[in-house]
Amino acid sequence: MKVPLNWLKEYVAIKDTPAELAAKLTSRGVKVDYAAPLGQELARIKAGRITALEPHPGADRLQVATVEADRLYTVVTGAPNVAVGQLVPLAVPGAVVAGGQTVEVTDFRGVRSEGMVLAADEMGLPGTHEDGLLILPDTIAPGTDLVELFSLHDHVLELDLTPNFSHCLSMVGVARELAAINQAAMTPPVIPEALSGGETARLIRIRISAPDLCRRYTARIVREVKVGPSPIWLQRRLQSAGMRPINNVVDVTNYVMLELGQPLHAFDYDLLHGSEIIVRRAGEGESITTLDGVERELTAEMLVIADRDRAVALAGVMGGQETEVTEATRTLLLESANFVGWSVRRTGRAVGIRSEASARFEKEADPEVTAKAVNRVVQLLEEIGAGRGVEGLVDVYPAPVAPRKITLRFARVNQLLGVQVSPAEADSILNRLGCRVSPDGQDRRQVEVPTWRTDIEGEIDLIEEIARHYGYDRIPSTLPTGVLTAGGLPDRRRASRLAKTTLAGLGLAEVVTYTYLDPELPEMIYGSQGSIPPIVIANPLSEERSAMRTTLVPQMVSTLAYNWRQRNLDLALFELGPVYRAEELPLTQLPEEPYHLSIGLLGRLDREGWDVKPEPADFYTLKGIIEALAVSLGVGGLSFQPSDHAWLHPGRQAVIYLNGDEIGVMGELHPDVVDRFELGGRPQVAELCFDRLTAGGGATPVYRAIPRFPAAVRDLALVVRTDIPAEVVLELIRETAGPTLAEVRLFDVYEGRPVTVGFRSLAYTLVYRADRTLNDDEIDASIEAVVDEARSRLGAQLRV
Questions:
Q1: What CA–CA distance (Å, rounded) separates 509 from 574?
Q2: Cα distance between residue 287 and residue 41, in whole Å
Q3: pTM of the predicted model, to two decimals?
Q4: Cα atoms in the Cβ-side hemisphere of radius 13 Å centred on 668
Q5: CA dist 564 to 509, 560, 571, 647, 681, Å?
Q6: Which of 432, 556, 559, 704 has the maximal Cβ count within 10 Å?
Q7: Who's near 709: CB < 8 A, 6+ residues apart?
Q8: What is the mean pLDDT of the chain?
Q9: Which residues are CB-neighbours of 267 under 8 A, at least 6 positions away?
Q10: DSSP state of 450
């Protein structure tokens, strides 16, 4: 069952996205296989009237048309059916037609064409290119947006229904289910009723000779029939629902079947013998030629629709060719009947036919909808100008089906579901599903089930409906008895996964190196005095893998050097893994295995493009990566202080602190180390103790509402000694500015005249916020307090 959402919206309000709608229906048992977009690419297609037509001066098969839409367009076309006065679809420049083709202004042998007039298939409508242009009704105004008018943008839900969801084999049925899920109002189509009898009863007689196989048969007559193509909106809806448009009469019967779930059939009234319809079993040796042109032998087990002399249809399966509706038909007999499901299934299987109609009858259609459906067909035929309904109808209903009444016990509900569903909630669910609920004592209800729910036969079915709409996810699962252990990843594994994802998102590639290395490698970086002694293995496989690493930097630098020699000049790498630290050597106990993180940058992080000129990675690039990682891990309190490691470049290095504790080091490699490894460029490296970085577990993200009041922004420039780090001034501002300071950042550093030698100017932007509008006096007081404190503690002066 395919459900176009534009059609469904006529019966129930839909605020959910197609994906959300599919999830809601599936969770209630109405399985949705997929939600597919339809016609989303179509754009800028307008209605246009052809006002002039001339032969193309340079091509015999082309014509030049003047088309009036929002303005006059000149269009070159080779359509065989083009004519002056026609209203046709016009794809203006920039339009997109079916298949994704974009229409632009084009030169056709010296004639400038400003668009394209379209066939039906180019709008995603039923038809072929060979049919020529799609001719639109004259009631449409030139310039009208056809994409919007015909609802060409749509989504279609493909339902995979189990037999107990036969009530969802119609648009109205799906709308009822969705209204029950969302607790929304459902608006069925307004259909005028026709009273039994009238002129129709004088024109046709109905007799049911097999009431055990046919519960009800309803018929109406339509005169002044004009068989032809259906309106575009009707063709579009059938196509979206997976059915092929044929003609206006057949299309309307199919439309109503999809809308209400009631199959219908139209006979050419003038071809019926005796103005009589008899619903009977087939005679032995009887045959019928069905609409597909095949002659079929019938048996006494098959139910047929017959006139006075012969069978004219296989009940619920397919009509007969002898009474088929054609362009010559002027009067219709419309059939809307209710057949027993097993009879239709057996007949369809015997003759090898399974149709949309038989699929619905097999699952037991609602007998109460037959009259409503035939009246709906007459209503639509009249609306599209395809015929005029005759007064009255014939309705043969030998044994009317009464709504089933079932006793529901709440104790049984709670016993089977394992939860305490309140009577009020159960009543609400059943009422939303169309049931009538009446009290029957404190713990019981009498439930009248609507006739369209042919699958609800007993109390257990009502309990299943309550469970569906109560929510299977709200019903707790009962675990088997035994010792259960909680699952989940260790904190280190969880943090390392997040760190890897973050660094990869920042453009870094992970490397994995051996935990064994050459003992001389650390000395090439740290020197004989600065390295931590590695743990030498007693029986190494080779000298190059004879020691266990105590730090990740040597192998990161070695990896950068290897790639540099292979002409991989732009590198952004990280490694996350254990190092091995021993308190004393030789080992008397197993070494510690803390996790460390190393980062190596060389060259440019971004690829060069026509609009991008990336700069080589530097100290601040590396610092930004580390800060971004800390934010991702929920770690606060990170700071950087100048350091003096001999293996790093003087003035381009820092020690990394977390809440005052040293956790790592970063900076640019010293030129001597660069030369030692035969590297080029300005390599940046960092190493952090990952276990210390994540020891606090990370802060849980906290939602902050969008500020209701505007911020107040001030700039403050302080002149301080050059040996005072900008971070120190930054922390002083945070401590002193008061609780209304929301943000502070450094935006300028200046040395030179008129600033005194040995001093520099640090300029900061201060952003103030509060749950009210701040005034200048408050902010001035904060700025003054910051200046006073900076003057007192740092000897700073305000730069004016």
A1: 6
A2: 49
A3: 0.60
A4: 18
A5: 15, 6, 9, 19, 10
A6: 556
A7: 769, 770, 771, 772, 773, 774
A8: 90
A9: 312, 313, 319, 323, 325, 332, 333, 334, 335
A10: P
